[in-house]
Amino acid sequence: MIKKILGFFSSDLAIDLGTANTLVLLKGSGIVINEPSVVAVQYDHMGKEKILAVGQDAKDMVGKTPGNIKSIRPMKDGVIADFHVTEMMIRYFIEKAHKRKRLFSPRVIICVPYGITQVERKAVKESAINAGARYVYLIEEPMAAAIGAGLPIKEPNGNLIVDIGGGTTEIGVISLGGLVLCESIKVAGDKLDQAIIEYVKKNFNLAIGERIAEDLKIKIGTAVQLDEELKTKVSGRDVLEGKIISADITSEHIRAAIKDSLEEIVKALGNILQKTPPELAGDIVENGIVLTGGGALIRGIDKYLSDAVKLAVYIADEPLLAVTRGTGKALEQLDILQQVAYED
Asked: Cβ distance 207 to 237 under 8 Å?
């Protein structure tokens, strides 16, 4: 059915609809959009809404808008939290990908977290169809990540992928083109950012926002002790006196802030390893574990996980793009699409 419907059309799109960022791959052109999953909406006195910005422009407004403008992140924990705003965001990205507003309706494959409900899958598909897609197919995130990381998913060989995204961490054991085991936990980039916000508030009496917390994570975040400590200055509001103050934050502070969240990822990884069939476990010992997603860029996280589970851990090439490229590869290769994508 998929092969009959899905032809070789230049308008076909692969979308990684992430909690933090949305990436769009245009068939034949590669990744054409990589922007934050944020929409800035303005409301008039009658409550009528108007989109002011989408993507990076909208993210730049976070925490800086007047009362009649809201910067909304419509995705939460990898799934749609605001149906209407998500639809507007998808429509904007589809139009931007094709550089025109009226177009031949594209066929779209969208990456979703493992284990989302039937209702959530339907919401994702309806958002894309209402935004102008002709057909919508879904692919589970760990499978897309494995394809994008170049793992031999079709072989009778066990491979273990860990994708640490914005809203969820997906851990999957893959063999013969299917997910043998998988676990999705709501501990990922957003929770790390929140942990940093709470740590800075508790230890420095300093209130910072999500954008600053994310910057700290990227600039000086680490999962292991570094030979040379990183340091940066951050400004925010004193929670006791209300005035603007600054503080020196180090990589060790960030490591302490995200420690509990990383331990939850280790626990989930351990659960998967315990359930893995012996034949596949032997393959994983030989092949190691592959990391993808933005969380794979945290300094030393490969060593941290390797020390915790006593297995080799490797970071995929360009881990931020693995899920999108895997989704795009499934779109371009019908044999893969038939095996890994599904429609409700």
From this structure: yes
Asked if the domains at 2-37+77-143+322-340 and 189-257 fall in one CATH topology, the answer is no
Q: Residue 260 corresponds to which tokens in the numbers above? A: 């509990």
List, in sequence order, every beta strand (DSSP E) within the chain. 13-17, 21-26, 30-36, 39-43, 49-54, 69-72, 75-76, 79-80, 107-112, 135-140, 159-164, 169-175, 178-185, 206-207, 231-238, 244-250, 289-292, 313-315
Facing residues of 249 across strands? 232
Q: Which CATH superfamily groups domain 2-37+77-143+322-340?
A: ATPase, nucleotide binding domain (3.30.420.40)
- Fold type of domain 148-187+260-319: Nucleotidyltransferase; domain 5 (3.30.420)
Note the pLDDT of residue 343. 57
Q: Which residues contact 169 (CB under 8 A, 6 or more apart)?
A: 162, 163, 184, 185, 187, 188, 265, 268, 293, 295
Q: Which fold has domain 189-257?
A: Actin; Chain A, domain 4 (3.90.640)
Question: What pLDDT score was predicted for residue 339?
Answer: 65
Give CA 58 to chain center in angstroms.
Answer: 18
Average pLDDT over residues 97-116: 77
Question: What residues does each domain of the chain span?
Answer: 2-37+77-143+322-340, 38-72, 148-187+260-319, 189-257
Residue 60 per-residue DSSP state: T
* Verdict on whether the full-model pTM lies above 0.90: no
Listing DSSP states for 166-219 in one string gives: SS-EEEEEEETTEEEEEEEES-SHHHHHHHHHHHHHHHH-EE--HHHHHHHHHH
